[in-house]
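Key result, reporting period 2: structure in, sequence out.
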């Protein structure tokens, strides 16, 4: 079979030749800390494994494996078992890249309905996926993956000290929970690379390009598997990320609580940053800055998710007037991508004066204080219910004020005092 490619797609570990209606994927002979395609035998085995695994979520796309044979004009494709192969390739049906979730996100055309459908599909996939024979091994594998990722990022020049300290603290504090999740069936042989560009919405929901080269990256907690797509959605619209997780849970999936999903999403952002930095060393000089900029954006996202973990759904910054609490609240809000709610702003709004105006003494009388803190608590509650993160900036000096706020906020989870 001769190839007449019309386009080429390339990643850090593979090259794909596109024809009018087919795609042929070749594995690069690379040896990296996280993947080894260094021999012909390994590339052949991984081509076979790629087809087997991806037919679970995209049976209509993955067609089979071909041998790459020398020919008078260069190389050609032959049946997989042909003697004398110099390489191997996976044959796929070519899909319309405009029908990927990534493209729809970039165009602003992705809606909550289709994202919820993807969440339901993934919950069903995880429920049916095989359980690894030793699921508890997923926890040390996760620790090793996190360690490797930070080591590689650091070797590529990334400043990840803060993210690494947080990861170590979370993993130490929640290790028993992760082991229990593994024992109760929440570690499955999943996808391992659930990016928006791998979700194809052309003929229903098909999901391509799962990790075939290392089972430890695929046989993971279902929350960690889902979190790659959560992270991708967070880069575009937090509401879509919430819709995905909500639909996954409603369909019976258990990705863990919001803090665990956030931690997993942060690790996924760091993994993608690593990949972007690796690609920056492989591409032409003109394209390298774009790759490094993408890595910087992903590292920033991981940082915001990390600060979100530290703060929870809502955090209070309190203390005497003129003590610097507003400056601190603003800094925390920026780092955690949180909305800052200020008692001063709410008070001035309630009495009908400009945010920059000086409030009269009557604005600080007990009745007005209670009204202000009740409104502050209600606004914080409503934003938390809507899936937002908030930082509350107020003195909380009087017990009556604290009670008014707490009563209004009472049924919103996640308050950190």
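The corresponding designed sequence is given below.
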């Amino acid at each position: 079979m001769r190839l007449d490619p019309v386009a080429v797609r390339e990643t850090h570990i593979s090259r794909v030749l596109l024809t009018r209606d087919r795609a042929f994927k070749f594995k690069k002979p690379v040896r990296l800390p996280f993947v080894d395609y260094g021999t012909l035998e390994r590339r052949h085995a991984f081509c076979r494994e790629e087809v087997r695994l991806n037919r679970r979520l995209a049976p209509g796309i993955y067609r089979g494996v071909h041998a790459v044979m020398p020919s008078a004009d260069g190389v050609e494709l032959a049946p997989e078992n042909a003697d004398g192969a110099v390489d191997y390739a996976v044959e796929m049906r070519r899909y319309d890249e405009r029908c990927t979730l990534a493209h729809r996100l970039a165009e602003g055309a992705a809606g909550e309905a289709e994202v919820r459908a993807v969440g339901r599909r993934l919950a069903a996939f995880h429920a049916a996926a095989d359980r690894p024979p030793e699921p508890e091994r997923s926890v040390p594998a996760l620790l090793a993956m996190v360690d490797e990722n930070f080591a590689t990022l650091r070797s590529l020049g990334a400043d990840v000290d803060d993210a690494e300290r947080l990861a170590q603290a979370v993993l130490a504090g929640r290790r028993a929970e992760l082991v229990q999740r593994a024992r109760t069936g929440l570690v499955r042989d999943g996808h391992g690379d659930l990016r928006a560009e791998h979700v194809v919405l052309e003929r229903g929901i098909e999901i391509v390009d799962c990790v075939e080269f290392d089972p430890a990256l695929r046989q993971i907690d279902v929350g960690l598997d889902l979190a790659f797509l959560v992270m991708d959605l967070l880069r575009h619209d937090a509401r879509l990320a919430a819709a995905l997780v909500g639909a996954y849970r409603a369909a019976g999936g258990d990705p863990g609580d919001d803090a665990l999903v956030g931690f997993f999403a942060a690790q996924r952002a760091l993994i993608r940053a690593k990949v972007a930095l690796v690609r920056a060393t492989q591409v032409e000089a003109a394209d390298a800055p774009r790759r490094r900029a993408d890595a910087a954006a992903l590292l920033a996202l991981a940082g915001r998710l990390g600060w979100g973990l530290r703060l929870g759904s809502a955090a209070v910054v309190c203390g005497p007037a003129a003590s610097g609490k507003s400056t601190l609240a603003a800094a925390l809000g920026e780092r955690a991508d949180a909305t800052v709610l200020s008692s001063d702003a709410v008070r001035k709004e309630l009495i009908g004066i400009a945010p920059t105006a000086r409030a009269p003494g009557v604005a600080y009388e007990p009745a007005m204080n209670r009204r202000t803190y009740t409104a502050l608590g209600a606004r914080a509650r409503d934003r938390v219910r809507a899936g937002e993160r908030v930082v509350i900036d107020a003195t909380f000096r009087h017990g009556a004020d604290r009670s008014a706020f707490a009563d209004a906020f009472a049924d919103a989870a996640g308050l950190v005092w």
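The mean pLDDT is 93. The chain has 13 helices and 16 strands. This case is discussed further under Risks and Mitigation.
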